[in-house]
Amino acid sequence: MSQRGAYNTSEGVPAPRAGSSYPGQIYGSPAASPSSPSSSEAEESRLSGPAPAPRSGPPAVASSPVPVSAAPVSATPVSSTPVSGAPSSGVPDAADEHVSRETPSRDEDDPPLAMEALRAVQILNPSGEITMPRPDHPRVLCVANQKGGVGKTTTTVNLAVALALHGNRVLVVDLDPQGNASTGLNVPHHAGVPDVYDCLIDNVPLSEVAQPVEGIPNLWCVPATIDLAGAEIELVSVVARESRLARAIAAHPEKFDYVFIDCPPSLGLLTVNALCAAQEVLIPIQCEYYALEGLNQLINNINLVRQHLNPTLDVSTILLTMYDRRTRLADAVEQDVRNHFGSKVLNAVIPRNVRVSEAPSYGQSVMTYDPGSRGATSYFEAALELAMRGVNTGGTA
């Protein structure tokens, strides 16, 4: 039978958790004050007295001579969590070194809220002073994985916003008929809006379709509408159908530092167009078994495109997403991916974070929705690592 708590072998009862109150221990050891009863009397009052107070707040100390309203207020906030070893008066001692895990260390210079605010300022970069290194030539990255729900669109949007906020000129090409990348960047993509379909089928210049992203300088998006769903069939009879997107990007008059192509969860002609237009492939891998199952087929298709259509194509970056540190499976998947792909796997790992999932409902990336969250910090670190790898290796991570 599994035991969910830590047990005292001598007593046979669960040991108290830090921060919880139970009969027999209130604010540390029952060291008696001159007015406190003896241990036997205290035991009798404990057995015959009323039930202990609920855990919603700290237990009352009847022997305290100071009323609650008259208690002195310290300049620094004092946690209401009972601390083992503290005096029976209920006031923590400044020299107390026995602090529970739930209580932050008093040696920390900055409280958690201050650290979160500092991260938010670093990510949003309102002054524009913080810049990520820019590559010496445009980097075209295809974000692809044939499995859906692994974080392709989320990765594309947040990496693009992080790089654009720190001095890089970025273009996002939404090649998924669902148009989720357009939604995440708050770019209109309803029926009738010029989109990437017009570029692929009607040879409309990409500059006439790209829209600037509101609130994010140096960031543009080529939206995708539902019309793109029929492009797979219409491209079958088109001459040089695999290189339509590559020619559209090459003909754009402005030069970007990064071009991110968000692919659909399939290996059809749209994904082939993205692989022909890109120099690098960024593969997001969810830390679950199903994400690994189709990875071999994706690598085989990339090798076929390299052999016959785009010899410069390279799988340069692997990003682990939706990492849940509470499970052994996530750790096992991470080790397998790192053992197989080696240095291509980014050190930054994207954890499961509810802020990342909430941001698209507000038409934002997590970088602007909650810049101090763990999800925003992780994507910022991934973008910085991606930029540094590109500079250190001459433009290819």
Question: Topology of this structure?
Answer:
Layout lengths: L6 E2 L4 E2 L24 H10 L63 H13 L14 E5 L8 H13 L5 E5 L5 H5 L11 H7 L8 E2 L6 E4 L8 H4 L9 H7 L7 E5 L6 H9 L2 E7 L2 H5 L1 H14 L5 E8 L6 H14 L12 H5 L7 H4 L4 H19 L5
Parallel strand pairs: 3-7, 3-8, 4-6, 4-7, 8-9
Antiparallel strand pairs: 1-2, 5-6
Helix pairs in contact: 3-14, 7-8
Question: In which order are the strands of the major sheet placed?
Answer: 5-6-4-7-3-8-9
Beta strand %: 5-15%
Alpha plus pi helix count = 14
Radius of gyration: 29 Å
Q: For the record, give the distance between the C-alpha atoms at the N and C termini, rounded to a whole number.
A: 51 Å
Number of strands: 9
The secondary structure category is: alpha/beta
Give a structural overview:
- This protein has 397 residues and is of the alpha/beta class.
- It has helices at residues 39-48, 112-124, 152-164, 180-184, 196-202, 231-234, 244-250, 269-277, 289-293, 295-308, 328-341, 354-358, 366-369, 374-392; strands spanning 7-8, 13-14, 139-143, 170-174, 211-212, 219-222, 258-262, 280-286, 314-321.
- Helices cover 32% and strands 10% of the residues.
- A seven-stranded mixed β-sheet has the order 5-6-4-7-3-8-9, sandwiched between helices.
- The radius of gyration is 29 Å and the shape is globular.
- Mean pLDDT is 78; it is low at 1-40, 42-48, 55-89 and 94-108.
